[in-house]
């Protein structure tokens, strides 16, 4: 079950593009809940209250969101994701990146990467070390976006990297292996996508999770015909959200006992039994990596949610204007 890809929370307003809809999506539009905080509109420390008078006057450069939300604890695969209200020109991106300072209590090498002209993500080359405190200080006051706009605010978010919780899904083996801080916790039985609606491969950091999600086939363009075998209109529990195109790990009433014995394919999601779905829901948090292998489908696009680690480091750096850097001390 799935929904159209368009945004993460209120952040990504790049237009709703149907990306081979997997099939678990809900009908609440393209907003993910709870994960994406509005950037605080308070001037950053040391930032002037308005652009320098030597710069031309113009409309402000503002941010839609900075993720993660300040004060949260997230997983080791969580990027810092900054979404601008208006396009940032290529010529201005290196300067903008340098004014978005990333600090950490444990130094890591990382870089910014632009997805289009409104979204920039910062991620370490490898996963964050568990226990790290991270701060982004986007001191954008007076900074130009290259399209006639200048920043008028500073934005600061501080968050922490929690336990290293990972899930490895084998589509062919019908299993999900969950580890915490390198130690095996449980192996769960799963079913993934059918041949018609295969699940995305690759690593996807959890976007958010909800106790119940209303999922419809019509909302993702699969079928609006109630007589179709692929029609569904269900409210299902224990939903862990992986992609904006509609991939979830959850329980399905149509597949109550998943595993190799049932071999019933989903519309692209990963199905767990009711008790396993609740257990998994209770274990994971935003930013925990879920890696899916063995599906005939390609890896999820890195901006389809927070699948940033589906890009190799060389390709990640190719989308950066200022290149690799090591976090400042915190």
**Biggest beta sheet attributes:** 6 strands, antiparallel
How much of the sequence lies in strands comes to: 25-35%
Structural class per helix/strand content? mainly beta
> What is the helix fraction of residues, given as a range?
under 10%
- Round the mean pLDDT to the nearest integer and report it: 84
> Could you give the distance between the termini?
42 Å
Radius of gyration based on Cα positions: 20 Å
Strand order of the largest sheet: 1-3-5-8-7-21
Spans where pLDDT lies below 50 across 5 or more residues: 2-23, 26-53
> Helix segment count?
3
> How many DSSP E strands?
22
Shape from CA axes?
A: globular
Oligomeric organization of the protein chains: single chain
Order of helices and strands: EEEEEHEEEEEEEEEEEEEEHEHEE
Which SSEs are present, and which pair or pack?
Elements: E1 37-38, E2 60-61, E3 63-67, E4 73-74, E5 80-84, H1 93-98, E6 100-104, E7 109-115, E8 119-124, E9 133-139, E10 150-151, E11 154-161, E12 165-170, E13 175-180, E14 183-189, E15 202-205, E16 208-216, E17 233-241, E18 248-251, E19 270-272, H2 274-283, E20 289-293, H3 313-318, E21 325-326, E22 328-329
Parallel strand pairs: 2-10, 4-11, 6-22, 12-20, 18-19
Antiparallel strand pairs: 1-3, 3-5, 5-8, 6-9, 7-8, 7-21, 9-11, 12-13, 13-14, 15-20, 16-17, 17-18
